[in-house]
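Human: Not sure, check this?
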Amino acid sequence: MRLVLELLRILVLLVIFGAVAALLTESIYTVNESVASYAWLSGIALLLLFFVTYRNSLQFSGWYKGEHRKKLPKKVTVVLVSISIVLLFLPFALGAVLY
């Protein structure tokens, strides 16, 4: 039962985080049409950031108390956050270069 509650919690958190992040990124990326066509890259970046946030902090405050709960290694966290940052700025670069 705890596993089902934790999965439901993840889903609710993802929807809330996704809605807020989508509102913020939509207002930024719709400034220019060439940038807006690559705005889907920000969705990938936001999913990566949610994954890192969940694995490094949110999983320890939920209902699931399994043995395999541990933080991501420091190098993995740095790589995933770096990729997310690049993906957030990549639409601007692609919009400037390709249009």
